[in-house]
Each structure stands twice: as structure tokens, then as C-alpha cells.
Amino acid sequence: MTTHKAPQGNPGDIMNWPMLKIEYRTDSDAIAKLLPPGFTVGKDPIVYLTVYNYPVMDVPEYGCTMMVAADYDGIEGQYALGYAIDQEDAVYVSREHWGQPKYLADIKYHRLMADVSARVIHHGHTFIEYNGSVSKTDGPGEEFELNEWWVKSVRDVSMEPGKFEFPPQVVRVYQKYKTAFRQTLKGELILRESASDPIAQCLPVKEVVDAYLWTPDFLDRSITKAGELDAEAFWPFAETIGGTRFPANV
Question: What is this structure's pTM?
């Protein structure tokens, strides 16, 4: 029998950091309120959180992605509500180029032996926190595909309602992975109310479905335009909280 071994590498190399994945179930209606017309809630109302330390532009980027299960044009996927990251250089270019909802925040994420700790902090307030321990090591997984949805748009300078210089486009991020290494965690997820990051208010936790450390094999990735949204219907969703996709009127 082959032993499932953890990835090896140079000590201190940030390519070695596993992603902290947390999935929890919320209310379908809660997700629906955050989705622009054109998207529908996925078959299971799951919120996906990923805390990571990964090289972006060859330097460490600590971040936390916030996604919800959402389908577009009959394709299952995850709609990105926010990328809280600590690297300023990647924030504005990512939003302008692709519509990726990155914004600046502080992320504390580390592992010591079996214990894992993560905090996402904005304006000095910790709005996401997770503390847990490895409970078991899982086997390598099969290949799987994932679609992530971003929205790119530019409103007209006149601010006339519903008028855009670049109408809202759905950006499809197609990804293909295989799990190289996975460890299940047992712990506690804490969401705290925040005016700037209203995940606790908008997407309450009904049940934590899974939490694990994940090291992927990256097999494929592409970014393409998937379609255009109705400009007038999208207009209320163009006004957002900071760089997130949380509508300003939530």
C-alpha cells in the first residue's frame, strides 16, 4: 500500500503553504439577494471561504476569498463576493483587468504542527476567524473542474442610471485541479458583523459542512468572457462596498 505523503520542498518556500478551505451552508434567499440578475443560486446554498498564502507576482500574498454557490447560463460555479488580500500591487490591476473583486485587508494565517489559525482583519476589525486542528489525513482526490464568476463593468461618467461605458460582462474563470494532499480539520468558524465586510450579516452560518487544508495540483486555468448582463438590472449591483461585490444597499 502506498503511503499518502505531504508535499515536500525547500523550508520556508511559500509554494508549500496549503490552502485553508471552509465550506458552510447558509440560506438560499440570503445568497439570492447578493446575486445580480442573470445568476441563480446553486443547488446547495454553500459559502466557500479560502485562506491562503501564495506567490502572486513572485511575492507572498496572504488572502481570503469569499464565494457563494451560483450558476450562470446553466453552468455551475461560484460567484466571487470578495478577495481580501494584503498586497496592494495586485488589487487595482486585478479589478480593472478582469473585474476580480480584490481589496486590501490584513490576513493572519499559520499552522503549528496540527493546529491551524486564521484571521481576516479589515479596518482593525476581525470579521472572519477560524481555529482548528488536523483530525485526519485524506487520500489524494480525483480530477475536478470549477468555474468562478467575476463581473467586469465601467459606469458612464454621466452617472445616468443604467448607463455604462463598458456594460457588465460575466467573466468565467475555468479551473481544473487534482488534490495532491488534503487534511480534514475540526475547529470553530467565527463570523463577526462588519459594516465593510458584511458576510456575517448577509450570509449567516447554518452549518459548517467542511474544513480542511488543501494542496492542489494545478492542471488548467483560463479566463474568458461568458456573456453580458442586463445593464439596467445590474445597475443597483454596480454600487458596491469598497472593492467587494457586496451591494452597497445591503
Answer: 0.94
